[in-house]
């Protein structure tokens, strides 16, 4: 398989909403390991005449904070191995959290293209609020609303240039 895009980020930033917006067909993979449910959804998409696969990571549920962070790290490392391009989703409502910092520090060292998608930018005021995410040290921001689709075209234009 080639042309793989993985969506990573902490819970509730809107990864699955973005995945659902991007994909045209999907297959769900659910894997239960000692109380932690992990699922990675795989879907297919096309943009500007380029076909690619999309992976939604981190649909697991757990009530331990440590397991949580460890799971996210695992998912990010797996995504770096498996994908050609990473979309790192963050949430303008929540601002930068410790988990965002942890993910960013892994991705800064990844030798794969990383696109920082600031989600939930549903209105113009939130564009101003999104600027704090430059602090993650990952370069350009793509302000999107996975809910309305705003900004996702610009993000995909940039992503498929790698294919
Ligand atoms: P995930 O845990 O990262 O997969 O996040 P989800 O896709 O499940 O979304 C978490 C919550 O954020 C849900 O209640 C979504 O409806 C909401 N959400 C997702 N995208 C947006 C958005 O663009 N704007 C707003 N306001 N809410 C969003
Ligand atoms: Mg999800």
TrEMBL record:
Q: Name one GO molecular function term.
A: ribosome binding
Binding positions (GTP 1): 9-16, 56-60, 119-122
- Entry keyword GTP-binding: yes
Keywords assigned by UniProt, alphabetized: GTP-binding, Nucleotide-binding, Repeat, Ribosome biogenesis
Q: Give the UniProt record's GO annotations in the biological process aspect.
A: ribosome biogenesis
Q: Where is the EngA-type G domain?
A: 3-163
Any idea what job this protein has? GTPase that plays an essential role in the late steps of ribosome biogenesis.
Instruction: Please give the subunit comment from the record.
Output: Associates with the 50S ribosomal subunit.
Family affiliation: Belongs to the TRAFAC class TrmE-Era-EngA-EngB-Septin-like GTPase superfamily. EngA (Der) GTPase family.
Its recorded name reads: GTPase Der
What is the protein's species of origin? Sunxiuqinia dokdonensis
Tell me the part of the parent protein that is shown: 1 to 163 of 435
